[in-house]
Amino acid sequence: MESALLLPSLLLVAAYPRGGSPQQEWMQSPPAPSVTSAPFWVRLNPELEAVPPGGSAWLNCSHNCPLPVHSSLRTQLRQGKIVNGSGWVSYQLLDVRAWNSKVRCVVTCAGETREATARITAYKRPRSVILEPPVLVGHKYTLRCYVTHVFPVGFLVVSLRRGGRVIYHESLERFTGSDLANVTLTYVMRAGLNDLWQPLTCHARLNLDGLVVRSSSAPVMLTVLALSPASIALASTSIATLVGILLAVGAVYVRKYLAVQT
Ligand SMILES: *[C@@H]1O[C@H](CO)[C@@H](O)[C@H](O)[C@H]1NC(C)=O
Ligand SMILES: *[C@@H]1O[C@H](CO)[C@@H](O)[C@H](O)[C@H]1NC(C)=O
Ligand SMILES: *[C@@H]1O[C@H](CO)[C@@H](O)[C@H](O)[C@H]1NC(C)=O
User: Fold this and answer.
1) Cβ(61)–Cβ(130) under 8 Å?
2) Smallest Cα–Cα separation from 186: which of 237, 242, 262?
3) Which ranges sit in the Extracellular compartment?
4) Nearest residue by C-alpha to atom 4 in ligand 1
């Protein structure tokens, strides 16, 4: 009962993908193709695939053409094996290194050509995010956060939080390297009484066009012991006096990493 009721509205959505009220269009103008010939469609699955840098992926291009078709995959990625069945072809894509690669599958059925697209993204979640205990030098604390083995570094944002609130963040978009990287963030701050016993944490976030990957460090504390009487006398809000990002990039590690993967 229910599925019989649902079917017409689903068909309508497919026939009128955009705009207007499908109900009204149904009343005014029923779909042109006869009920027996479904509209020709092409799908490429999955639409978004994530792989480690240098990894490979399989994409399945399927269609509903009852006739023998010509189908091809258009991409800048290197193609590997192909497996096919009736109504589908599965393509292997090799050595995905770009953080974002577009793939199109083009199928021609009885003179009509349609295509479907998919995206493959290569990324590597940081192996570790480590915030060192603050080091007191004079009246200032030096915080160091290490983010190791991350890719693509150009889409990384590293932030420091105190008591859950962001006190500093830096985007590394100026770095366009195509290798795994280590990032060290150094932050120097003054601390006052308010900062005592507040957990400090370091956060790494990759934002890959909708795919967000987050990692964070274990918390560290500013303790009474580290706080000198002189710094209590200083402003109770922290002031950044020097900030730096250090980036180490290792092509060697991409290879090592891949060796571990396979
Ligand atoms: C490809 O997709 C078709 C249709 O969804 C499915 O029947 C087939 O098993 C899939 N092939 C592979 C290799 O996943
Ligand atoms: C798979 O592809 C081959 C070569 O193009 C073709 O001869 C064969 O009919 C295809 N198999 C199926 C089940 O479509
Ligand atoms: C990155 O950090 C890891 C772990 O701390 C270290 O073993 C490796 O040598 C570093 N790689 C580079 C390129 O600095």
Assistant:
1) no
2) 242
3) 23-231
4) 62
Q: Atom 7, ligand 2: which residue's CA is nearest?
A: 84
Residue 92 sits in the same domain as residue 50: yes
Task: Enumerate the β-bridge partners of residue 114.
Answer: 107
CA 172 to CA 157: how far, in whole Å?
Answer: 6
Residue 192 included in any domain: yes
User: Per residue in 61-78, pLDDT tens?
Assistant: 999 999 888 899 999 999
Ligand nearest to the CA of 90: 1
132 and 207 in a single domain? The answer is yes
Task: Summarize pLDDT for 3-47 with one digit per residue, the tens.
Answer: 333 333 333 233 333 333 333 333 334 444 444 567 899 999 999
Residue 245: its pLDDT value, please? 66
Contact criterion met (CB below 8 Å) for 158 and 182: no
Burial class of 211 by CB neighbour count within 10 A (0 to 12, 13 to 18, 19+): middle
Range(s) of the domain holding residue 140: 128-221
* pLDDT at residue number 240: 44
Where helices occur in 16-151 by DSSP H, the ranges are 22-28
Over the range 163-172, which residues count as b (16 or more CB within 10 Å of their CB) and which as e? eeeebbebeb
Q: Does the CB atom of residue 94 touch ligand 1 within 6 A?
A: no
Number of domains, the chain: 2
pLDDT value, residue 210: 82
Is the residue at 82 inside a domain? yes
Residue located via tokens 């795919």: 211
Rounded Cα distance between 50 and 56, Å, is: 9
